[in-house]
Amino acid sequence: MIRELMRDGAIYALAAIASRGLSFLLVPLYTRLLAPAEYGALDLIVTFGLLVNLVVALEVGQGMARDWAEEPEATARRRLASTALLFTLLVHAAFLIVALFAAAPLAKGLLGSTELEPVMRAGLLFIALNAVFLQLQSQFRWELRPRAYAVVSMLYAGLTLILGAVLGKWDGLQGVLWGQAASAALASLISLVLLRHSLELTFDGKKLARMLKFSLPLMPAGLAIFCSFYVNRLMLNALSSLDEVAVFGVASRIAGLTTLLIVGFQGALTPLIYVHHREQSVPRQLARILEAFIAAALVACLAFSVYAREVLNWITTPDYAASAVLLPWLAPAALMTQMYIFLPGIAIERRTGWQLMLTSISAVVSIGLNALLIPRWGALGAAVATCVAAIVFLVLWLRASQRFYSLPLRMRAVMAAIVAYGVCIALDLLLERSPWNAEVLLALKALLVALLLGTTLFVGLVRRDDLARWGLMLTRSSARVQPAAVEEPVKEHTACQHLRSDR
């Protein structure tokens, strides 16, 4: 499984680095095109879109993903994918029609003013078109077509950057949203062309019922995750101001760069786990991968934290300087909310009830802490609440997943590395109050990052032989990666040969 993960993961990672690199350019662009209050409104609309994607299509994409491995025949898979896409199109079209009629009260409730009704209308169109694109994009993952996934991901990011910049310069926030809507529409059309052999004009009620039987119980858990990690924006707007939402949003976008560490795994790991999880060697392989990822995550989060002020001075305006103090909290939170993919026990055993329980606990923690801390500390309070909720979520998920699909993790090495990370963060706080000049501080901060990296190797969280072996696999996999191009659908990927015997 590791060889397949390295091969497909390399393509997903390269695509994600390119597409998210383009998306990252939106931060310096939008912070200069938009006033802080407008950037805060944009962040709220994007957050509202996440909620809509969770609720409107009833998480049917999750159901399709789970049933894909149980449909070995190409005809059955086409009906499955087509049914999921048509359902997504229909329900989001219905939502868009209703929401456009209610644009004024939505603008008042979400953005605080009916004067932003035109902005809300543009945002609603973007939300609906983006939902369709996400459904199409996920189809490439389940077909194990990483190159096509890379093409549409980078295309969407590039279109968003170009059209958002051009239309935003012309019409401010409303133009930015029109640009994002147009980008989603164009990327969806190209995805349909690439998936023309995988889709047909058909709708299977029985397959929809089976998909929804799996996905509907996930909706409350999805809402709980939303409350855990995204309700902070809504509460910041209600308890503070749009300017504070903007400060938090910029910090979140920069902290999200740490998730580049995980994107290759996100694209390739889940389908491979569903295929190979019964193999005896897989739990140990997953444990070693997770340990190496924890080491890389700690080093990356420390780097983002110690260089937060320098990064913000470089890419944003002085209006967003307050975002620097949020990064030490939001960088690790961004990764912890995604690390459940390495812990597949709940998904493998279909324990959706457990998922709901764990996410509900983290949601309660998040809402409670946001309500307590935002009135006192503003955006910093929201960042602290988000980080604590992420810790609660990950720890509970780890314990539950180990019950159903145990991984032989070396917890002593993990805890030693986490303690070293905390010590380095504390030392950085002392450095910030020191009288040394900027050049000396930059060098000392680099030393802290190197110290943590060395600690992860010393405690055995990452072993040199593992690094050498994975590096060789990655080199060989990368050498086989051809430039991304439009490709014909593969009838059966090597990993798919295990599908018939897996279930």
Element-level helix/strand string: HHHHHHHHHHHHHHHHHHHHHHH
* End-to-end separation: 17 Å
CA-based shape: globular
Determine the fraction of residues in helical runs and give it as a percent range: over 70%
Structural class: mainly alpha
Low-confidence stretches: 472-503
Total helix count? 23
Radius of gyration: 22 Å
Please indicate the percent range of residues in DSSP E strands (runs of 2 or more): under 5%
* Largest pleated sheet: none
Q: How many β strands by DSSP?
A: 0
pLDDT average, as an integer?
Answer: 86
A few lines on this structure:
Helices cover 79% and strands 0% of the residues. It has helices spanning 2-24, 26-33, 36-55, 60-68, 74-101, 103-111, 117-142, 146-194, 205-215, 218-229, 231-239, 242-255, 260-276, 282-306, 308-315, 327-336, 345-348, 352-377, 379-404, 411-432, 438-458, 464-480, 499-502.
